[in-house]
Amino acid sequence: MSQHIKLLALSALLLSLCACRASGSIETRRAVQAGDSGAWMAVDTATGSSVSLDVMAAQLAKCDVVFLGEEHDKTVAHQLQMELTRRIVELRPNATLSFEMIERDAQEDLDRYLAGGIDESSFLKDTRPWPNYARDYRPMVEFARERGLPVIAANVPRPLASRVSKEGLEPVADEAFMPRTVLAPPGEYQRRFAVAMGNTHDTVDPKLERWFLAQVVKDEAMAESIERGLCAPPAGRIVLHYCGKFHSDYGLGTVERLRRRQPSLRIGVVTTLTADRDPARIDEQLARAADYVWLVAK
User: pTM, whole model, 2 decimals?
Assistant: First the structure.
């Protein structure tokens, strides 16, 4: 879940930071489709060199799961996601799309919508779409609908995550749509989360610990959902998962929890950074974050 990494802990916080910016979206899409990278640059962190979407797609199509980590309010990044998705699906037609932005209790309505059993307004009515759904995520859902691709409503329902942030895990552990396993050990992910939430002390207060637990519940739910998607027939699927970059950067968050479940998976990670179009921005630290970085103009 990630406006830079501060998008993380609470559902209310996440939604408040998902403000839509519609201006320029049509122009951005046309530019991306035409290959005009004036507003963005993709960098292969292994080489430090810029690459095209076609090169990215060819490499990422070899994976079992691809995490497309985003800054939620960046229109150009969503357009890049869409165009990269098209290219990967051309290479791997047996694809499944998976969304942090659609919650597990929406899966039945989502499936009915994809199959043509209900209209879009009925699908969206009770499924808590994000404020920027129509502009930024709908194109990918509609693409899946046109191609007959499965779509995973991957995230834990917001009301449950909110309860965890306030009450802890035990009161909701047995609720429907909760992940079966929730592990939140101390380590790099917790430290990064504390920094993102503004904690500069060595000790973590109980409130922040509960917020972190709510973050982990989301990661576990998404990892579990992706695993189920991979196991669904037919075999050999690739899952493309759209999430805030904090959930996937540095192989932490959802990535870490998916690897715990399926250690042999080939996982590719893309992240987004609001920065100048300059490969020199990819320092050693950022190179650890992902296989590819989209540098998106401010």
Answer: 0.87
Domains in the chain, ordered, with CATH? 4-296 (3.40.50.11550)
**Backbone dihedral region for residue 48 (phi beyond 0: left; psi -120 to 50: alpha; all else: beta):** left
Give the Cα separation of 159 and 168 in Å (integer).
13
pLDDT, residue 32, reads 52
Mean pLDDT of 117-130: 95
Of 132, 277, 254, nearest to 189 by C-alpha is: 254
pLDDT at 30: 45
CA angle 156, 162, 167 (to 5 degrees): 115
- Residue spans of beta strands (DSSP E) within 196-280: 238-244, 267-274
Query: What whole-number distance in Å separates Cα of residue 15 and Cα of residue 162?
Result: 12
- The whole-number pLDDT of residue 37 equals 54
Output b/e per residue, 250-271; b: 16+ Cβ within 10 A. bbbbbbbbbeeeeeebebbbbb
pLDDT tens track for 225-244? 999 999 988 889 999 999 99
Using DSSP's 3-state secondary structure scheme, residue 24 falls into: coil
Task: Residue 37: name the closest of 276, 288, 249, 244 by CA.
Answer: 276
